[in-house]
Structure formats: structure tokens, C-alpha cells
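As a warm-up, study this chain.
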Amino acid sequence: MARSTTFAQLLVTQLRDLGVERIYGVVGDSLNPVVDAVRTTDGIEWVYVRNEEAGAFAAGAEARVTGKLAVCAGSSGPGNTHLIQGLFDAHRDGAPVLAIASHIPSEKIGTGFFQETHPEILYRECSHFCEMVNSGEHGATLLHIAIQTAIAEQGVSVLVLPGDIADEEVSAPLTRDLATELGTVQPAPGPVGRLAELIDQAGNITLFTGAGVRNARDEVLALADAVKAPIGHAFGGKEWMQYDNPYDVGMSGLLGYGACYEAMHEADLVILLGTDFPYSEFLPEKDVKIAQVDSDASRLGKRISLDVAVHGDVALTLQAVMELITRKKNTRFLHRMLKQHHKALTGVVSAYTKNVERMKPIHPEFVASVLDDLAADDAIFTVDTGMCNVWGARYITPNGKRRVFGSWHHGTMANALPQAMGAAFAYPDRQVISLSGDGGLGMLMGELLTIKQYQLNTKIVLFNNSSLGMVKLEMLVEGLPDHGTDHADVDYAAIAEGVGLPSVRITDPKKLRAQLKSALKQPGPMLIDVVTNRDALSMPPKITPQQIRGFATASTKIVLGGGVGKMVDMAASNVRNLPR
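Now compare it with the structure written out below.
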């Protein structure tokens, strides 16, 4: 039954009833009615972040690990414009997030009033829905549309809310039914049949997987077995497809490793499964047929011309395809790629194993490999953009229970720490580990105060090399002297202690394992400041004239060199299992 309430109270109650447990933001002026509604509503809390950008990152991370709607907010003008970086990240990675962008008084809009911006214009590029509330009754309708759109489109919705309208009384139902459990896309028979024909006609087939195979692992493995296909993956597919995979040939792209690139280029048919892989330069250019399966039809053919495009859920599509294809018997291509993968991995292992326990400053790959050994089986890892992406790709071993994610599509600095906050709020009893670079941590270091205030179970493993390592690498590969990348050493452990956050500073490689093990076992938050070698960059194995400007434009066509952690063991096991 309808009853009179303020729109702010209706908004907060509706979110609470939907299962939203918190709103990330910074209190202030036009946002105050919403904050006060949170204060008086059981079952939902206000999380005080130090920068609204971090609040948006945290909401995006919470949405990614739970699959549910998460919410952030910013006050008028600067408060909500701070949100935009984290919203871009959430939107591009398909995280259902509602952003409440409060606004100046409605009668002042368009007058150049204090803190006036136009959020409904600013957020268009990073949202599926962005509209301004014109009245309380109007807001009740827009709230429903905004929430439903964020859930249905798996991205960001923005509700622009003038402060006076937030206080306006409204008579509206406190709950509206929402479709929170989404169905799956059944592929049409025609494209499925064409894909099956293409598979039967092809001799050598490679499967390339992305985040869209999350619920299709069994189906992907079954298809690989049926057609004797190696399986490669983008970073988004690593956590779902790398582990216990007898067909694994590694990862392609700028951070890639193994034989994935060769497997795609030497195949007759490459099937892209649930991936919006942006680096088209790494995809086959000619003489290879390409098929793509995705539940989002807008992604089909976006990166490369297709011979067959299938709009459908990956699992449902592969189930239908398996009923139509003839099993293949020839394993020569698969076995050759598995051997090539093993050879490629063993050829670079020495990058971190040679004298690594005596290297000072500590070699970052050694840190990542030890961390992988010590972390919990169901740990959630968030990974900073830059060299931490390389260490995460190479060393964090998935097992079906761990989660690993970063700013995969937006590629922003400073994402790992606030994303770890969102993950820790969502799962307070799980180990959450942020792989942070000192550049990223320095950018949003104020969030150490947030972690301390809420005693989040977050371990911040800091790769402290006093350098912007990825930028240094880009400059070197382009043939430029690195400039502006290095800075004076900073004792971040001391800074953490200054804000009351437990910390440890690790400088001796011989003590690394023991100190890291002890720190990870501590309850609650901990900053683990590991002083690493700024010159330990994961360089391409060779540089040609064509590669001088290659790294920044992805024209290198080869993967970065470096260690590969436990992946070499799995590759060796797969090769040992091949028939002699």
C-alpha cells in the first residue's frame, strides 16, 4: 500500500529491500537527505570512503564478486564528478552499479550556481542509463528503471538527484518487483548449424576463451575433447579455464605466455568464446576462419571479421553444437601445441629462479610466486594496472575457488586497493589480497584510512619499486630513455603505522617467505611493503625494428618474457600424459 514518505527514504528503502547492504560515498550538502535516510533505515549502511572514486571502484568490485547490484554516491559538483573513474571501470567490466549523483537545487539548474555541473551529460559514456529526477513521483519511476537497467544490461545506471527533490514527499509503493535473476540467451538454430558445419570442415581448431565462459567450463572442455582443440584464454578467462585443463596453451595479449598465439595462428578455425578481446593485433589476420559466440550480440565481429557469428549463452550454444558435430580423431595439432606450450614456458623460467633468493632488491616475480603458495585457496585477488598485471597473470594460480580481477578494460591506475575494499565488505570472512603498485597506492592512499576505520580483512601486498614500471617498459620498448618514471624511495609501512594500520616492511629475500606468511595470517587489515627491484621488468624476449613502437600499439605479436609460476608444472603434466 502506498504511503507518504520522502523520495530519499523511498530510494534507500527500495535498495535495502533489494538486498543492497551499503552505499559507498562521502557525505555532503545535496546528498544529506539520502545519508539521513540511511541513518534511519535498518539493514543498510553508509560506507565513508575518502574519495568518491574509490567508492565507485569498491561498488564495482562488490558487484563483480557477488553478481548483485552495488551502490555508490557523490554530492553535487565535485563530489559526483569524482565518481567517474570508478564508474567507467565498472561499466566496461559489466558490473551492475547504481550511482546516485546528487545535484544542486532544481530551481538553480542552468544559472551557473555554485558547484553546478551537468551529470546527465557527463555520465552518458559510462552508463546504460542516466537521467535526472524532476519530482518525487518521477523519481520513483526512474529509480525502478535505473535499477532494472543496471541489472539487465550488466553495467552502470546513474540517477541524478537534486537535493530539494530528495527531500520531497512522495506517495508511491515502497517495493516494485524487479527481475534480478536473469535468463540465458538461447542461440538460434541457424547459426548453431553453421558453426557445427565449420567445425566439421576444419582440420585444426583452437578455442579462445574469455570471462563469458564462467558458467561454461565443462562445455568448453567437452568441445575441446571432441575436436582435439587446444584452449587459450584472455586474462578474463584465466580464472575459469586455466586450472586442471589438459588442453591449456596459455594466454594471448600483451601479458600473454605460452603457445596461445601460435595455436590461434596455425589453426584452420579459431572459435572465440565469451570474449571481447580488445587486442585484434594478436588475432589471426588471414587464412584462418573465425567464429564467435557471445551472449551480447553487440560484441560479435567487433574486433575481427567473422565467418560465423552466434548470439547465445556459451554453455547453451556448445551443448547444441555437440549434438551436431562429428568427433575428431587426429590429435597431431593439439599435441604439437601442448609441446610448444611446455617448451615456451620452460624457456623463460630462469627469469625468476636463478639466484632469486639472494637478489636485492627483491625480485618481484619471486614475491608473486611465494604469495601464490601462501594465499588461501579461496582468496580474492585484486590487481593494479601496470606490472602487477603481469605478476597476477603469471603467478596467481586459479583453482575454481579463487577470484582474480583488476581494471581489465578501463586500465586505470589505483584500482586494486579500493576494489579490495569492496570485495572485503562483501566477503568479510574470506582472505582479500590487493596486489598494489606503489604508483597506484600513492594515488588513492587515503583509502588506508577507510580500511583502518572498518577493519577490513584486506592484505595490501605492495610491490614497492619506486617506479612506474609499466610506463618505464613502454618507453624502453619504444626506444625512448625512461623519464619521469622513477622517484625517491618511500617507506609505506611507516605511513600505514602512522594511521594505525598494522604493517611490515620486507627488504631481505631470505626472510620474504616467513614474513609474508606471518603477515597473511594476521586477522584484519595489513599493509605488506615489499621493496622490489625497479629494473626487474618483464621484457619481450627480443626486440626488432618493427617492435620499437610495438608495445603501446600492441603490434609486437609476441608475448612478454618472464617466469610463469606453477603453470610450467601443469604444462609438463599435460605433455607427460600425451601418448608416446
